[in-house]
Amino acid sequence: MIRSRGYAVPLVGVLLALATGIALGAGPLTDTGSSAAPGPAVHQPAPQAGYADAFAGAVATRLYGNGLSRRPVAVLTAPGADPATVAAVTAQVKAAGGQVSGTYALGSQLVDPQQKSLVDTLGAELGKQLHAHLDRSATTYPRIGELLAVAAANRGNSVGQVNDDVSAVRQSMVAAHLVTVPHDAQGNQPGTAPLVLLVLGHDLDQAIADGLVSGLAARSRGVVVIGDTAAPDLVGLRQDGVTKVAAAVDGAETTAGQVASVLALIRSWRTPGGSFGASGVTGAAPLG
What we know:
- This protein has helices at residues 11-19, 51-64, 83-95, 116-129, 140-152, 164-175, 206-218, 232-239, 255-268, and strands spanning 72-77, 99-106, 179-180, 195-199, 222-227, 247-250, 275-277.
- By secondary structure, the chain is α/β, with parallel strands linked by helices.
- It has one domain (65-277): 3-Layer(aba) Sandwich (Rossmann fold), CATH 3.40.50.
- Helix 2 packs parallel to helix 9 (255-268), helix 3 (83-95) crosses helix 9 (255-268) and helix 5 crosses helix 7.
């Protein structure tokens, strides 16, 4: 069971309150007794549409409090993830003091229901070969999610070494076009990271999304999944109980959502799960 924590007033509500002004000098207390007919009504411009994002961006670093210092993050991008969103949230991770260990692109075959046989066969074979024991009761997608975690994540406090298990999983999944593993100019691949940020793109089959995220959460210290406002996959993760082990944040297309996702990463170091963002039920952002 997730322990509840106190949260500040939801960020969106705070922003709306700040953005809403009360026009002084326009009410009955300003009556001067003049008999002149009132002039035409003056249209008050609406608050700037981008104020919430501007505010979130301005206060983000102070909210983070360097909360990701010395805490590596592996970024996973699902098919259709917006590169601009990925770049923006990566910048926010760095603003919180974090280090992106690597960005891994999930292949379309990994999340294609028509390729389930391939995913199942590869997962079963890799499970037999690894020194690390996977959950033997896991079905196709939770198992491949665990294997993704072996390739990119760890449950420790720092960057993990690329050992035989990590190399075997990476090589097999790359060969099957299930994931792309980053490397530097010399061909060196990154170590694994305790925290995982999964950026969604196209809507996934919900059973696949549930399985991948729950598998990632089983072998990492913390997982945060981010998608656009009211993304169906995030709603499904919450309804299916996956947000008990991994945090979901919607509003990825906004600065406010990106800031909330980094705050969720900070929280996930010690407390997993939660539903945050524009449609979050736990709160707009974990501020406590």
